[in-house]
Amino acid sequence: MVQRLNHGTETTVxxxxxxxxxxxxxxxxxxxxRGTCLSCRYTIPxxxxxxxxxxxxxxxxKIAVVDTIMRHPMLQVGMMDATSxxxxxxxxQSLDLTHHIKWPDLGEHEDFEQTVQETFRAQLDDRxxxxxxxxxxxxITIFRQGNAPIMEVLLTWNHPQFDGAGAKxxxxxxxxxxxxxxxxxxxxxxxxxxxxxxxAPPLLPPPIxxxxxxxxxxxxxxxxxWEETRPQFLNRDVSWAAWCPIRTxxxxxxxxxxxxDNVSLVAILALCRQNxxxxxxxxNGLALIAFSLRLDSTVAPAFQSSTIMDxxxxxxxxxxxxxxxxxxxxxxxxVTQCLHRYETxxxxxxxxxxxxxxxxxxxxxxxxxxxxxAVSAQNRQEIMGKLEAGLRNDLVGLFKYVTDWQQTMSKMAxxxxxxxxxxxxxxxxxxxxxxxxxxxxxxxxTGGDSKSDDGQxxxxxxxxFGLSAEIPAAAIxxxxxxxxxxxxxxxxxxxDCAVDETFGENIMADLERWLAQLASL
Length: 521
What we know:
The N and C termini lie far apart (61 Å). By secondary structure, this protein is an alpha+beta fold. The protein has helices at 19-29, 54-71, 112-125, 164-179, 208-211, 218-229, 262-274, 279-294, 344-352, 366-388, 395-399, 405-412, 433-436, 501-519; strands at 2-4, 10-16, 36-43, 78-80, 88-90, 94-96, 101-102, 138-143, 150-157, 190-191, 194-196, 253-260, 303-310, 335-342, 421-429, 459-467, 476-483, 487-495. Helix 2 crosses helix 4 (164-179). It is built from 14 helices and 18 strands. It holds the Pfam family AATase.
């Protein structure tokens, strides 16, 4: 469909926003959510590491970004009618890469790690000022110091554009393009920093609701309607997070993260397998113990949490002409949520096994470890049950009945908070493209094969994932990502105006300490 814009030019409307995209844009527009960031540390091949090769390095990065853009149409499109109830994705004629690739100057004596972390935190709260049609809502910021053999690539994006799993695909495909000899696509449209996009409208990954039916049972729909419309004084569910009232301003994200080496991660994964759970289940279990320890039973006798789930595995095969080839490699929005309840009896039992003083007995006792693994296994069962059920009675199915998302989210901010915590896990990032491609004979940029020339290949050694504060959602949100063979990062965010900074830091310290304890068993 072609529409004429106010300034007289014509544009092609590719499709209306999907449910997830509309919901996330509404949160952005009313300042309930800002940015998401997935940062990866890349090892630079020796031939591009010297200072005198800086121009070739930057050109190699730009070409790889262009090839990644051409594989994923959601990186190419802009928004139209963004502030309306029915925004649309539209085709753009060109991209100015200076809006999407930034190389900040980093002095020789600046602290590299500190600069990366400060920028990461700042970008979570940055806004993409123009949500109209000029440029897509994503950017990469690249830090490189002198001739060091590493660079940090921060991918920051506006969530309607794609989800965290899509960001992981971006980094993996970007790495693949860096290691490709000639790239996967011709770059005839690249003139300096201006990328002219193809005239043919791009094929966008369809929204989840157009690929799968979203049946909602009448009983589930009636319950959701009652929870939406009932007066707040009638909500006597003690598992809601009434201890943390929703506050909307001033908007500021508190963000903390810690890293675990691969030896410790392997030990943790072995324990998870023995106890029939996953890292996601374990993080939910550890959070339950931490909040039970840090909050009094009179304030929080029970809890609810939410796990973000990627439904790409439930999608049909990608169309034959899709440049992303497989459904699990789509850069788009395919997340839903799995809700968990921790009843009063369970929480009381856990509290009975905690030390009387939170400053004493900081390790998990044998009794607490048994409770931890039982809860973690139950959490995994709930997630697997949700995945196996497909999208029946899914939250996205309920979302289709919402007609005005900005109004709905504004009302939600005036209600009682439901979730104490949230866990999102985008899984394991493949930092070595030759293993993902299933070959060790891919031609390297310098000739020869990758098996004999691994020293000239790019790789990813570390990743860090973070969300900005989600005002009406969970009090504290945990985000996890790992790199195959390289370790794991766990982060947490919370709204500064609603959660005490010391409280949030104590919760994170508990998780870090207990994971270290479990890894040493």
